Amino acid sequence: MASKIWTLFLGVLFLISGAMAAPPRKPVDVPFGRNYVPTWAFDHIKYFNGGSEIQLHLDNYTGTGFQSKGSYLFGHFSMQIKLVPGDSAGTVTAFYLSSQNSEHDEIDFEFLGNRTGQPYILQTNVFTGGKGDREQRIYLWFDPTKGYHAYSVLWNMYQIVFFVDDIPIRVFKNCKDLGVRFPFNQPMKIYSSLWNADDWATRGGLEKTDWSKAPFIASYKSFHIDGCEASVEAKYCDTQGKRWWDQKEFQDLDGYQWRRLRWVRSKYTIYNYCTDRVRSPVLPAECKRDRDI
User: Fold this and answer.
1) Order of strands, edge to edge, in the sheet holding 121-127?
2) Which residue among the candidates 53, 103, 106, 229 is catalytic per the annotation?
3) What is the pLDDT of residue 179?
4) Which of 10, 43, 206, 233 is 20 to 30 A from 184, comparing alpha carbons?
5) Rounded CA gap, 197 and 140, in Å?
6) Strands 167-173 and 45-48
7) Overall number of domains in the chain
8) Catalytic residue among 103, 110, 135, 207
9) Where is the GH16 domain positioned along the sequence (predicted)?
10) pLDDT value at position 241?
């Protein structure tokens, strides 16, 4: 652990000097407008602390969202989010990457609202070549409405890793050799949104949004992007193999990270498509790469 901390410290020094760098120890606080722009309903986004913190507002008129200015092929993307407090049933707060075509690739965090006192559900999903249906759901081990927590994606040629506060909660390995498409040649934008989905979000749509509790508010800061920026038509990244997230140590989880992932699975996972034999009688090919399946 000490050696990893030292490596990260050296990475910050290299970053300052302009060299290819190891990841920062925590997401960098930068103004919202440096990398992102509102997507719709601009009046439902509120700005604080010089634009380094924003709030998305949802009412019975509209939700809102934002997207990155650039598109990216691989990288590390992180956001600190404080979710809608109180009765948030029917609402969805989303943070995801998505390409711009019909056979799209997508990497999703979706936070499904709850009735007061019930736990939030974090749903993740991965689309490749327009195919999704790879949902996993967990309860979080903290109250995500009480303070900010970091939600991150590491994406390279070898794996996609979802992190919550640096704890891996999901890994999607590159299984092209098993006939499974992997996102590698379609640049993605980063998006976030707050919207009403009470037809499915809470208890399968049984719990509806209580608009008397509106506006519903999700808060964001630390709009961190460390990726290879590319045009929408790009098929490769010209820095491939040179950035920290391309290096050998990031081609797989280390032993400590695998133990943390198993902890999440054993204590907090409530649904995993890989183990749903009713929905998928035959084990999906990519699940064969999972150490715990």
Assistant:
1) 36-40, 64-68, 189-196, 91-98, 106-112, 121-127, 136-139, 269-272
2) 106
3) 92
4) 10
5) 20
6) unpaired
7) 1
8) 110
9) 23-220
10) 78
Structural domain of 206: 27-289
* Inside any domain, residue 181: yes
Mean pLDDT by 10 residues, the chain (293 residues): 43 38 61 94 95 96 97 94 96 96 92 92 96 96 96 96 97 94 94 96 92 97 92 76 89 94 97 93 88 62
Cβ-contact 113, 205 below 8 angstroms: no
Dihedral angle over CA of 251, 123, 140, 171, nearest 10: -10
DSSP-derived pairing of the beta strands 167-173 and 53-58: unpaired
pTM of the predicted model as reported, rounded to 2 decimal places: 0.90
Domain contains 260: yes
Residue 97's identity, in one-letter code, is L
Let me know if residue 175 belongs to a domain: yes
Report the candidate in 185, 107, 91, 104 with the shortest Cα–Cα distance to residue 152.
107
